[in-house]
């Protein structure tokens, strides 16, 4: 890599990085190359804080060693140790290239040493202790766990590669320290290299490695890291041909033998790996290609065969996995069955049964990622079917009657397990492709049946994706082999019935379903389908009379399909919709409320759709566009805008009815008028949105053809200008933004004379924002509405040839606050915020971040409106400069990934260094001081920091703020900034300062900052002992009793975090409030349970409330087990109090539900039930939350042996609630009774009611609840083995065998509720609807029964003595 930046101290050594003359460098008694080497080592040590010098020095040292190596000259021993010290200094440097150079330097140094060291050259080949002293020292240094960095492990790898005998030093002790680091992505790759090298060298450690791999790391790492490395390390892959011949067969099979041992341990009964991990590992073995060796006759080609899953796991394991309750496990099993790089391996009968079982029971996968994985495996399966059927299809089938080579009774046919697929329809067709054809047609049938209107969204989208894959012929063709694809001919199975199923999907409520269905209708050949065109068009028009947006969308998809079949009808349909639009517009002009009964937006949506998809127009359609679009459509659109603008531009976000219309609506109820106003607003803004879309299409499509007049473009520009400067409806001005961006793009690049220029618009709007030009209608909302989008559209579409002229002009004007009124300063900052947030301008706008940050901080001193805009601008800048937060930030400690070093930050924004320092010195408000503190908390001082922008100078003013400021949040932010920017030396000074702090005479604000520093410094291991000593002294002195409650709370939190002892009774309960929370934690965890029982703190209701909260958050493990009975007793007493609040009652009941019988006495249990029952029967009960009632019900029925009708009804009603917590409790209550119901032939009516109530949860929207329900019900349908089965399978078998007594007729379990829901014509769709629930039974029950080994009965089901 070329060195672009030379070090400041050794800049003259840059010549070494180009071609050099070796004689010039090595001539003389004192060669120049060694002097350069000394200067480089000296510079790297002296200027360690200068990034440029360190980067250049590391690259230069590496280059010097390369030159010495190429010259074959020796490296004097006096330089060996200085180079090692250099490596140790920089191998964990902040710049990655320096770390890489350090490792390369070590490898070069080691090679030079081994080439010239006499002791190393004379060492025995097998003695690991015969190396020279220098090598032994290096080995000891590297193997000691003194440094935890990636480069250290890479150096170890180079050491054992060049000194193979040192591998004996890498034993169990070394790997015991190393394996825990594999979970860190930084180390996983380099550590796996050491592990793989050790595996190939030391087979006596295989048992240890297998155990550690299976118990200490994630199986995904074995799949993604270990197995590929072993495959690449395999001698037959890495060694040359000559070396392969010299290797022994056993040595070349080392990797395969180790993986076989790993597999044996994985499948052993004592294995701790879960089922998914086993499947993941086996999948990695199967999909990895292990090269075969040419052996002598009668010898196997490979020691172990990983070519198929059957070689790696048992059928019982696969049978359990394919119907497992967990979706990820089932998906892993399916991928293991179908994915194999050896595509010519045919599927056998067992594979096909597993495929069918999986596909039939997993059509409703919810997770989009899992759905994509399934479709990818589905496509791979199709490719494998085509590839593996190619050879059998070329086989000529015998025709003699006496030939049995391929008869159903022959061993060759039976050995593949395909005898059941022999139908006799084609005597010359091999059974393998014949079985594949049957499977493909079965899959097509399954997919089309899943398109039923009563199926849920997940089933329909999965079915459409499978149809799209299955009916793509190319998916069955591999390497140009298409015999099977031609023979399959799935298109012949398409017909009118399947056409109707796909056609009905155009009316679906999900856009993705409609889109895929439309593409299938256009692509697939359903045969000669006759359509009633008049009825089809009338249905589409009927849908457009509805105000529901989904109906208008459905009409659009229907029309796209119709025009795809009849493209010649495009112009006629367009004219028809234009006539309808004109009529509705005229009606709306007379009576605005008519847009709620004959909506305009649905017609506009249809017209926009037709314009963007001109399927039936000729290439030269200028006349059509001129007559129909420009002459007729544009005037109507402008008229619609004038009609709906009063409503869209209104200030009310909840709806608007013009004043002149209110006079005619006297007598209507308020609710009716509110509903009507919302209806009117929605219809008006949707019409407004589609007009914006039509104008955008005109600019994008017609304007470049130069058929749009200047006046028409100006009218469109005026429309967008008005919406972006005056409109206050968010949806309206956001929809106008896209069209305006298209218009600006066209105007920037057009050569047509006389058109308005975006730069002129920019000057006009900037003049208005400066207050120089009067725009009385300029939007005055908090976020300036569409104004920021207007400026952004102009600037973002500026061509590169302008060299950011518009951007520079805009930022200069917006950031210049001199002479602007407060209103215009707010507009300026809102526009800048939008420009900062724009991803389009990210790189182009970086130059103004520093100035913008200064403007935002200065504006925080102003009034509320300006300060609000400034805070929004500052937040946008923080995100752009420091990156998006990876997780929610719940403390003031910033994630390391969102922090920058002092040099990195201030080298980009040098003016901010003095600016931020000055801000800390000024007397200012809380709002203006907070942003500088936040910025500083995002910075840090690296160990190799540059002296150019030191952060140490900020610590003193920050400490002054932390001690003197009266505002708590400012003090907290100041301490957070101090801890963030402090280096090792500053932290040491801070630790000494807190040790000398006079807390006895300090003010409360000083004590608060002191405690925050204690807590922050305690986060560093090296200071924990000193912090604990300081806290112990404070607790022993009892001086904290004089402190305020806020500081006592902070102190006790620190004390509890270190497990320090203190007397709870020393604190007066009446004087504290916040401190009761850490006191509650201390009471529960105190080892002296008797003392805690007698503690007077527990007499206080607020303290007890904190006790219950602690148990609720941390569980009963947070409580001393000898204290639990006492806590349970007082909790029941508090629950019986008539004045208890509902939230407290809920928390008490929740913690009581998790109490075990060991700590709950019978008396307390009886008393608890009596209290709950009394409360539930109280007519004045104030418990209204469903979850509170759920916990009460769970406690009430805790000791019941059988459920009553009231409980079963409550379980059913809880399923209908949109409250996951209540559902979970109701399921657990019902599941506890279900466990007591044995598996039998028939059930009582009460048992059926209970099973039916719990089985409802098998269709819950939450995958977790469905899986838990299957765990409760599984034992009723699975006779043996794991009872946790796929909820889809469990539901069908429960319905048949438990609710229908084994009868095959299940029609009564299907309903038409889905159709009744879809027939509504509400303005808005219901938001609380279970989208997973289905109203028809899907699946193959006999196949499911076979897959789980259920035959409907066993001996235990009958009360018969044998």
UniProtKB/TrEMBL annotation:
InterPro entries: ARM-type_fold, HEAT_type_2, THADA-like_TPR, THADA-like_TPR_C, THADA/TRM732_DUF2428, tRNA_methyltransferase_THADA. Keywords: tRNA processing. Residues 867-1014 form the tRNA (32-2'-O)-methyltransferase regulator THADA-like C-terminal TPR repeats region domain. It holds the Pfam family TPR_Trm732. HEAT repeats lie at residues 955-990. Residues 629-864 form the DUF2428 domain. GO terms for cellular component: cytosol. Residues 307-514 form the tRNA (32-2'-O)-methyltransferase regulator THADA-like TPR repeats region domain. Transmembrane segments: none annotated. It comes from the Eukaryota. One of its GO terms (biological process) is tRNA methylation. Belongs to the THADA family. PANTHER family: THADA/DEATH RECEPTOR INTERACTING PROTEIN (PTHR14387), THYROID ADENOMA-ASSOCIATED PROTEIN (PTHR14387:SF7). This is tRNA (32-2'-O)-methyltransferase regulator THADA.
